[in-house]
Structures are given as structure tokens and as C-alpha cells.
Amino acid sequence: MYCPFCSKTDTKVLESRLLNESIRRRRECLNCTNRFTTYEKAKIHFKVIKRDGKEQEFNLKKIEESVSKACGKTPEEILTNLTKKIEMRILNKKMNPLKTSEIGKVVLKELKKHDKISYLRFASVHKEIDDPEILKKEINTIIKGGS
Fold it and tell me: Residue 38 pairs with which residues in a beta bridge?
């Protein structure tokens, strides 16, 4: 870690705290004895393969937007927790690249636990349901499955 005052790399960590999605570290330069704070956040890079075969960088914002649309007027805090669960499940797949169909299955599983109507909204787009009979089968699956 470079000291912002003297640019030396000899620093020590005095204190570390876990914040929402990052780590706050209080540091001291061993050369000039000035103190400064750093924030660290893990940046995850992995690829996804879309239905058309194209590969692109994983984008959590796309999942957040689609889950938000499916959930309608669900409070922001609940949406945030839901997308965090989905993100953790996706990262636990440990496959790089990951197919968008696999991501969709993870989202569907979490939405099914959260809210059946949100699940149906997302499923109708993800599974490209355009036939009322198929939608009826999906509804029956939810009714019979319970959760």
C-alpha cells in the first residue's frame, strides 16, 4: 500500500472494520508516520454465456433490474437482500463462464421462496412463456409444490 503523503510502501494496518460490502482499514506510514484510511472491496470478474452463444462480463445490475421488475412494489431493503442471496448462490456455482440459463434458475429458485407472483412474472420472461397452457402448468407446479 502506497502512502498518499510520501509514496513509500511501508505501511501498517492499525485497525480494520467490516462495512456493508467493504473493509475499512486505518493505516499508518512507517516512513512519515502519517495516518490514512483505505477501503477495500472485492471485485468479481467472470463471464456469462448468453442464449445466442455470446460471452460477456457478469453484470449484477441486470439481475437487480429484472428482480425489481418481477417484484413490483417490494421494499428496497427486501430487494437488496434478495439480490445478495442470488449473487452469493451464483458465485457459489464456481463455473466460469456460466450460462445465463443457470443464472435464471438461481433467480427463479429464490423468487419462488420469496413470492409466487414475482416468480411467475420472472418465469414468463425467462422461460419465454407465450402460451396460456404453459403458464397454467407453471401455476399448477407452484400450487402443488407448496414452496
Answer: 25
Q: What pLDDT shows up at residue 65?
A: 94
pLDDT over 80 at 138, yes or no = yes
Q: Please give the Cα distance from 13 to 41 (Å, whole number).
A: 16
**pLDDT digits 0-9 by tens, 38-79:** 999 877 788 999 999 999 998 889 999 999 999 988 999 999
Strands 47-49 and 98-99: what pairing? parallel
Percent helix, percent strand, percent coil in the chain, to nearest 5: 45, 20, 35
What is the Cα–Cα distance from 111 to 144, expressed in whole angstroms? Answer: 17
First to last CA, the chain: 49
Long-range contacts formed by 79-84: CB under 8 A, 24+ apart = 82/110, 82/111, 82/114
Contact (Cβ atoms closer than 8 angstroms) between residue 22 and residue 49 = no
Contacts of 28 (CB under 8 A, 6+ apart): 11, 12, 14, 34, 35
